[in-house]
Amino acid sequence: MDKKTSSAPSIWRVNLTPAVIGLIPAAVGINYVAKAFAEGLKLPVWLGSLGTFLASMLAGPIPGAISGFINNVIYGLTLSPVSTVYALTSIGIGIAVGVLHAKGGFSSARKIFVSALIIALVSSVISTPLNVIFWGGQTGIAWGDSLFAVLVANHVPVFIASFGDEFVLDILDKVVVAYVACLIYKQIPKKMISYFKD
Fold it and tell me: Max Cα separation, the chain?
């Protein structure tokens, strides 16, 4: 085996250090509060993946995916039962953020935007079938559902209309969350970040 390859750090390696173990519930809490805040104010975004973004950026895709999964389960048990099925979406988001961050996808404003679009696409691909099954294709966000209604009225297939509904919302949500997460990440001292990498 090539020595250089074997010694390269893997983004899939998970060291359950005290820092990582503490990060996961903190990320879950951030997700929970942000999502409840957005729903309470009826914002046109969900914000419920902020903690997932931070966990994936700090510790890699697996802790991020775990944080998102746990949040959806808890949120589903306490505030919105159907939220639990979207744990699958949160897993996808956590993995996408972790991989993109490791590849330098959050190193500049332009790259953050492109990464947010990719994450929005991942989220939409996973969420659309769930929206069709549980909500007839809608998302529960008024302006996105207005687009869905227009598309369906113009004889666009429900699945495609649902994807359009989800994707336009995901673009706004993930762009906002990506920039906020990066802003927070840049304020964290490098020494503290290293605790999650070791």
Answer: 60
Provide the token pair at 36.
């409840």
- Alpha-carbon distance 105 to 170, whole Å? 18
Report d(CA 22, CA 20) in Å as an integer.
5
What is the model's pTM? 0.92
Among 9-13, 160-164, 180-184, 190-194, the least confident range: 9-13
Angle between helices 50-59 and 190-197 (to 10 degrees): 80
The whole-angstrom separation of Cα 169 and Cα 25 is: 27
Token pair 């927070």 is found at 184
pLDDT higher than threshold 60 for residue 1 = no
Contact between residue 64 and residue 55 where contact means Cβ atoms under 8 Å apart = yes
Q: One-letter amino acid identity for 179?
A: Y
Domains of the chain: 16-197 (1.10.1760.20)
